[in-house]
Amino acid sequence: MRTDREDRIAEIDALRGFALLGILVANIVYFASGYPAHLATDPAYASRLDSTTTWLTAFLIDTKFYLLFSFLFGYSFTLQMDSAARADARFTPRFLRRLGGLFVLGVLHAVLLFHGDILTSYALVGLILLTVRKVSTTVALVSALGLTAAVAVILLLVGSPVEADSAAALIEGARTTDAFRGGPGSVIAEHLRLLPAQLASNAGQAALALSAFLVGLAAGRHHVLSDLARYAHLLRRIQWFGYPVGLAGALVFASGGGTHDAGTMAVGLLTAPLLAAAYGASALQLVHSRTGTRPARSFAAAGRMALTNYIGQSVICVLVFTGCGFGLVGRIAPPLVLLIAFAIFGSQLVTSTWWMSRHRYGPLEWILRFVTYARRPPLR
After folding, report:
1. What is the C-alpha separation between 202 and 211, in angstroms, rounded?
2. Among candidate residues 118, 73, 124, the one with its CA nearest the CA of residue 99
C-alpha cells in the first residue's frame, strides 16, 4: 500500500507514527518529574496504582520504541539512496546536509526543550551508517547483533550508574523538579546541567540505535516493507519468537530494578529488540487488516511528519509541566501522566491528518528537506 504523494510507502509512515506514541509515553515521565533524570522514583507517588503504572511502562514501553524508530531510520536510508540514484544525484552530500540539519535541531531540542534528545545521536551515528552502507546484508545483521551484545557486556562490567533511589539521587531529583518549575532561564540552565550525564547515557543508546540502523539497512535492501505479502511468514516468525523472549526479558527488566540494576538492564537491552520487532510485525499486520485501514491512515499522517511531532511533543510537555506554562511538574501522578500522553498523541493524530491533507510535508520536514536538497521544496 502506498500513499498518493511522492509514491511514499504507507506502511513505513504508519509504523513510524506507532513508534512516536511509544516514544512519547517513555519520554513524558522526564517532563512530569525531575526524579527519572537521576534514575530515581518520585517519593510523592508511591501508591500501588502509581507503582503499577510505572512498572507497566518499564515492562511494555521503555527501551523498545526508539529501537523501532531507529530501524525505520535505517530503512529510510535505503530509500533515500534509491531516490538519489534515480535522480542521478550524488547521495553523500545530500545525506551529510540532512545529518547536519538533524544535529542542529537536536542541539536546540536538547537545550531548549528536552535534555534526552535523540536527534543529535542519530546525526552522529548516521555518519557511521553512511560509511558502512556498502557492507553485505550478513555483515550488517551480524554487526547489529554484536553491537547489542557488546553494550550489554559493557554494562555488566561497568555496573549501573546510580543505585536505586539513593539519597544523592533523591536530592538531585528534587533539585531538578524545582528547576523545572521555574521560567525559561531556569529550565534551560537545568537542561545544560543535565547534559554531561545525558551524553554518557547516550553513548550506549547511540550504539543500540546503530544496531537498529543496520537491521533497517538490511531490510530496506530487500524491500521488506514494500512487499509484505512476500514476507508474511517472516512477520509471523518474528512474533512467535519475539513476544515470548521479548516479554520474558521485559519482565526481568521491569521486575528486577530496570535501569537501577546492571544485570536486569543488560537482559532488557538484549531482549528489547525482539519485543520491538514483534510490536512492529503486529502493527504491520494490523495495517493490512480490514479493521486497521482507517487507524493506519491517521498513524501514517503522524508518521509522515514524525520530526515535527517529535519536537511538538516536547513543546507541549514543556508548556504543560514546566514553569514556562502550567508548571505541573511533580504534581501529577503517573496514571494521569499516562493519560496526558495519550491525549497529546490523539491531538497529534487529528492535527497531522488535517495538515497532511493540505501540505506535502510537515513544517520541520519541509525545513530539513530544504537543507538536504539545498533548494526550496514546494509545501503544497
Report:
1. 14
2. 124
